[in-house]
Amino acid sequence: MSEIKKDNTEDKILEAAQTVFIQKGMDGARMQEIANEAGINKALLHYYFRTKQKLFEAIFKKVFNQIFPGLETFIHSELPFEKKLSIFIEKYIDFLLKNPFIPSFILKEIHRDPGFLASVIKSTGVNPQEVFNMLEKEMEAGKIKKMDPKDLLINILALSIFPVVARPLMEIMFFENNKKAYKEFLIKRKESVRQFILDSILIEKAG
């Protein structure tokens, strides 16, 4: 099997598996269904990924790395905190807008096996303590208010994620089922969330 053909087959499997896993979750997905979606036989699927668990792990890593590639480098960059916050919120909300089914997929899997998801996320190199350390450094420098950094990070994630997860209900309740208007609202949230967070944490300079 040539290297190019092998790569193409693996890409097709990963794409098919992502579609099936997002629709049905780990428990609901079947290897035969993934093979059918990829247009290959089940034996070939097992050649690449021996178990559904291994395939799911590969998909979750792929999905998580798409959320913010190079996150660790970004955290340690010399950019000012306000700029880091703006870039993170903009990229995060843009990703959620382009992949609206991923938050509900992740939430479903959180309830199924949170320990597994935590281990997969850590295996990508993401260390929440590095984010907390960055925030604490900003607090010690007197740039942002002192608070529990976990609280701040959860606020940022919640403000970004909830409107996407709750989109079907919010469109009906607040926007009379106008999908275009709600999408425009979500795009504007990149700025409103950024400003809301900054207003709540920045220390005003006297004079």
What's the helical proportion of residues? Answer: over 70%
Classify the beta-strand content into a percent band.
under 5%
Number of helical stretches of at least 4 residues: 12
Shape: globular
State the total count of DSSP E strands: 0
CATH architecture of the largest domain: Orthogonal Bundle
Q: How many domains make up the 3D coordinates? A: 2
Spans of 5+ residues with little confidence (pLDDT < 50)?
Answer: none
Mean pLDDT: 86
The helix/strand series, from N terminus to C terminus, equals: HHHHHHHHHHHH
CATH-assigned homologous superfamily of the largest domain = Tetracycline Repressor, domain 2
Question: CA-to-CA gap between the ends?
Answer: 71 Å
Remind me, CATH topology of the largest domain? Tetracycline Repressor, domain 2
Overall CATH class of the largest domain: Mainly Alpha
Largest sheet: none
- Helix vs. strand class: mainly alpha
The Cα radius of gyration reads: 20 Å
What does this structure look like?
With 207 residues, the chain is mainly α. It is globular and about 65 Å long. 79% of the residues lie in helices and 0% in strands. The model has no long low-confidence stretch (mean pLDDT 86).
